[in-house]
């Protein structure tokens, strides 16, 4: 349950440990307290759950109703629970009814707990006596022993690990026309708060709006993220005009929304947290929402168009390109999981998605590797660089002047939070023309014999030129390209002249015969550039080619030969 270490009691008195339950349950009823802190209401400090006790009651003589009658009562209660907007985390069947629990993810105070608990009791018309935070509730999978001759096994009938948050409880109970007195679920924006909200995902605009404007303390937010220099939210110097006296305050409307209000006649700024942030950042409303969510470590996904755009891309690479753009497919099919992962990561890490052509997201290589279930950061990085070379994705170079200033500031702020460099990418729409462009790049990658395994700035620059290398590796942009190794070139030209072909091995042999040290890395890095300069191609030896070049070895090695013979 929500409480990892509940206090167990027998017959409402004696405390026992969890291990002793079975022993005592032979004679006694076993209870626990869902919340933490003690056995009395005033001792509870940690609120773990809301609960309702749906009890069939007793007849006029004080006897329990028949099990049949109770069963019909339970069925109707369960139907009501199942129809309720927010699924309870646990429902326990007892002899005389049902206990339902809704867990609490955040830290809340007694005042707010009591308000929502009361709203639950009212909605379900449950036992009015059962609404104390220290209420003793029946332990599931134990026997009801009030009638020792007819024990009843109390079992779990519903279990659900969905995480519900205070904001949604409030919204839901309000939708049910249950009055929740205006309250301030005061959430300070502290690191602790961040972790509590880490996995929260808002799916609708309303949800995220309620959360930001009603649950987040604007005062705390402004102090933390905009260095608001103020002691009290009741009076401080306005941040939107040159305020000599304290003209601004923050107050709560009847609907529970916090508003910033400037009393100065010349300024008079009035707005909720989203509007405040939009003005401070000079950005759109939706960008302000994204900004706030990001700061609070919560996610908000509303943009269906963005989702469709990304899913269309995935379908295109999965289903279409193997027929329509074969060269591209041939080069990337082994690395499709990485490309897919990047799309799914984009979905969750969108920085900007203004329209279908402008989708920017961030992800560290490590994060992409982890998403793929790999530890191999290097390989994943090479996959990404290959996609980038092929123009399937673009790395955003923050130092590039063509990147708009608005992006830059936003992205830099975004990265400021992180200790490591987080890459920023954009994904184009994979329409036919775009894929044709990628396909052309793929052809060249094949022709130039550029191997993904040895993808470096140098090898890309050698094969495609510095501009392309800058595009693929913006983080090491402008790195000097080493000139082609003269001895390697000499070795290759000599072998070509003598035999009409060479292999990696024959080059190695040439080095050995001339007492030179052969560096495999140099060979791998420089071969694409040499192939381009000498107009070579790489082919697998066939019987015919072996005859032609008089190759006696038994295998079929890769041969480097002149393109036009
Ligand atoms: Zn003002």
Overview of this structure, please?
The chain has 565 residues and is α+β, with helices and mostly antiparallel strands. The protein has four domains: 8-175, 2-Layer Sandwich (Alpha-Beta Plaits); 191-300, Alpha-Beta Complex (DNA Primase, Chain A); 304-476, no CATH class; 486-562, Nucleotidyltransferase, domain 5 (2-Layer Sandwich), CATH 3.30.420. The chain is built from 22 helices and 21 strands. The protein has a five-stranded antiparallel beta sheet with strand order 4-6-5-9-8. The chain is elongated.
Summarize the amount of helix as a percent range: 40-55%
Low-confidence stretches: 179-196, 416-420
Bound compounds: zinc ion
Overall geometry comes to elongated
Number of domains: 4
Could you say which structural class the secondary elements and strand pairing correspond to?
Answer: alpha+beta
The number of helical elements comes to: 22
**N/C terminus separation:** 77 Å
Quick one: how many beta strands?
A: 21
Largest sheet: 5 strands, antiparallel
> Average pLDDT value?
82
Radius of gyration: 34 Å
Proportion of residues in β-strands: 5-15%
Adjacency order of strands in the biggest sheet:
4-6-5-9-8
Key phrases:
single chain, 4-stranded antiparallel β-sheet, elongated, alpha+beta, 565 residues, binds zinc ion, 5-stranded antiparallel β-sheet
SSE blueprint:
Elements: E1 8-10, E2 14-16, H1 21-25, E3 30-32, E4 49-55, H2 67-83, E5 90-94, E6 97-103, H3 110-124, E7 137-138, E8 142-144, E9 152-159, H4 166-175, H5 191-196, E10 201-202, H6 205-215, H7 218-226, E11 248-252, E12 258-262, E13 270-271, H8 273-281, H9 285-295, E14 299-300, H10 304-324, H11 326-332, H12 336-348, E15 350-353, E16 359-363, H13 365-371, H14 377-389, E17 394-395, H15 405-416, E18 423-426, H16 432-447, H17 457-464, H18 466-472, H19 486-499, E19 501-502, H20 504-513, H21 520-534, E20 536-540, H22 543-549, E21 558-562
Parallel strand pairs: 10-14
Antiparallel strand pairs: 1-2, 1-3, 3-7, 4-6, 5-6, 5-9, 8-9, 11-12, 12-13, 15-16, 16-18, 17-18, 19-21, 20-21
Helix pairs in contact: 8-9, 10-11, 10-12, 11-16, 13-14, 14-18, 17-18, 17-21, 19-20
The chain binds zinc ion.
């Amino acid at each position: 349950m929500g409480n990892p270490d509940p206090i167990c009691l027998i017959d409402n008195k004696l405390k026992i440990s969890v291990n002793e339950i079975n022993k005592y349950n032979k004679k006694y009823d076993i209870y626990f307290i869902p919340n933490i802190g003690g056995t009395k209401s005033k001792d509870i400090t940690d609120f773990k759950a809301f609960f309702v006790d749906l009890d069939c009651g007793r007849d006029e003589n004080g006897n329990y109703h028949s099990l049949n009658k109770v069963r019909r009562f339970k069925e109707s209660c369960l139907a009501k629970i199942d129809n309720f907007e927010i699924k309870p985390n646990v429902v326990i069947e007892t002899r005389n009814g049902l206990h339902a629990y809704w867990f609490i993810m955040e830290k809340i105070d007694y005042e707010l707990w009591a308000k929502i608990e009361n709203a639950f009791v009212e909605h379900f018309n449950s036992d009015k006596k059962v609404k104390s935070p220290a209420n003793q509730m029946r332990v599931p999978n134990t026997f009801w022993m009030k009638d020792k001759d007819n024990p009843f096994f109390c079992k779990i009938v519903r279990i659900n690990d969905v995480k519900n948050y205070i904001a949604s409880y409030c919204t839901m109970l309000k939708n049910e026309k249950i009055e929740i007195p205006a309250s301030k679920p005061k959430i300070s924006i502290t690191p602790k708060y961040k972790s509590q909200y880490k996995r929260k995902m808002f799916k609708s605009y309303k949800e995220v709006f309620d959360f930001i404007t009603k649950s987040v303390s604007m005062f705390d937010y402004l102090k933390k993220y905009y260095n608001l220099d103020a002691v009290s939210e009741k009076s401080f110097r306005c941040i939107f005009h040159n305020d000599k006296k304290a003209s601004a305050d923050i107050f709560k409307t009847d609907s529970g929304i916090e508003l910033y209000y400037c009393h100065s006649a010349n300024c008079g700024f009035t707005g909720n947290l989203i509007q405040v942030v939009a003005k401070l950042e000079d950005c759109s409303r939706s960008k302000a929402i994204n900004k706030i969510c990001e700061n609070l470590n919560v996610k908000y996904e509303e943009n269906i168009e963005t989702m469709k755009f990304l899913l269309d891309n995935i379908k295109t690479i999965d289903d279409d390109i193997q027929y329509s753009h074969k060269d591209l497919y041939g080069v990337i099919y082994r690395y499709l999981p990485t490309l897919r992962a990047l799309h799914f990561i984009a979905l969750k890490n969108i920085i900007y998605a203004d329209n279908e052509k402008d989708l920017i997201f961030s992800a560290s290589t490590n994060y992409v590797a982890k998403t793929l279930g790999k530890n191999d950061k290097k390989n994943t990085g090479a996959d990404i660089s290959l996609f980038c070379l092929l123009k399937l994705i673009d790395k955003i170079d923050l130092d590039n002047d063509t990147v708009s200033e608005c992006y830059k500031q936003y992205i830099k702020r975004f990265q400021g939070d992180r200790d490591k460099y987080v890459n920023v990418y954009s994904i184009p729409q994979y329409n036919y023309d775009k894929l044709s462009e990628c396909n052309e790049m793929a052809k060249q990658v094949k022709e130039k014999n550029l191997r993904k395994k040895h993808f470096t700035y140098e090898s890309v620059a050698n094969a495609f030129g510095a501009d392309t290398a800058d595009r693929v590796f913006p983080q090491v942009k402008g790195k000097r390209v080493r000139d082609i190794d003269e001895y390697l070139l000499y070795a290759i030209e000599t072998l070509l002249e003598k035999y009409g072909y060479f292999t990696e091995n024959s080059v190695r042999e040439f080095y050995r015969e001339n007492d030179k040290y052969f560096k495999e890395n140099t060979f791998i890095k420089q071969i694409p550039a040499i192939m381009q300069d000498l107009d070579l191609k790489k082919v697998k030896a066939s019987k015919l080619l072996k005859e032609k070049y008089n190759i006696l070895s038994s295998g079929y090695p890769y041969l480097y030969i002149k393109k036009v013979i």
